[in-house]
Amino acid sequence: MIDLRLIKSGLIDAKDVVIAPVRWNQTQWALAMGITGLTLGLVTQDLAIQNFAQKNHTAFLDAVSKYGLEPWGSGLYTLPALGIMYGCSFAFHDKKARMTAMKGVEAFVYAAIASQILKQITHRQRPDQGDVPDPYHWEGPIGPIFDESFPSGHSAAVFAVATVIASAYKKTVWVPVLCYSLASLTALSRIYNNKHWMSDVVMGTAIGLAIGQTVFRNSVRLKLLPVSPMGPGLTLCYRL
Q1: Is residue 238 situated within a structural domain?
Q2: For residue 66, is pLDDT > 80?
Q3: Over the stretch 78-93, which tens digit does the pLDDT of each residue have?
Q4: Is the separation of the CB atoms in 219 and 17 below 8 Å?
Q5: Which residue, among 121, 151, 142, has the nearest Cα to 36 in the 3D structure?
Q6: Residues near 128 by Cβ (< 8 Å), separated by ≥ 6?
Q7: How far is 180 from 47, CA to CA, in rounded Å?
Q8: Is residue 221 part of a domain?
Q9: Cα separation of 184 and 178, whole Å?
Q10: How many domains would you assign to the chain?
């Protein structure tokens, strides 16, 4: 059973995700500006990239994209996998896996919320909408509810989770490689499936990485103790 104090830690993570830009140093701001510039630059190439992706479809890649990649971004595979990881952590008495699973779910949710907020602010038309694909079609806050291309929510969510797991198990080389490879392929599948522009995917990826790193850093400051002043249970310690 999850200790209610773990919910409090989730609220702390949420607060830190929201105010993270306020705490950025010069290097982080420079990186953010660079990613923004890259995204704007890619807008000019979005249509060419979209055309290339749509001209290179195969039955095999269609199946891989639909059944092997897209569900990781939607949560269909990701959340159950984290649930299994959480359950197994009790069987193997693995506190690290337990914390990683919980933080992974948090990162997924926060990335989904952040991307959805930006979608409602920008209302960019998806490449499969309209009579002619138009990467320059931005309606702003008053746009149609179905124009939700920017940023890619799938990319943000899958990279947020991948960052948490990869950071927690960075000493096991194959884990980061697997996590980031799967996340990258999932993000690219959104272009292949004609659901997003490349610039959507790049910004979504950046959001996911930033949120995943923020949530993971907080997990490092958290410690689960197998004792509780109320009796059997867990105690959550948060180092300021």
Answers
A1: no
A2: yes
A3: 999 999 999 999 999 9
A4: no
A5: 151
A6: 194, 195
A7: 26
A8: no
A9: 10
A10: 1
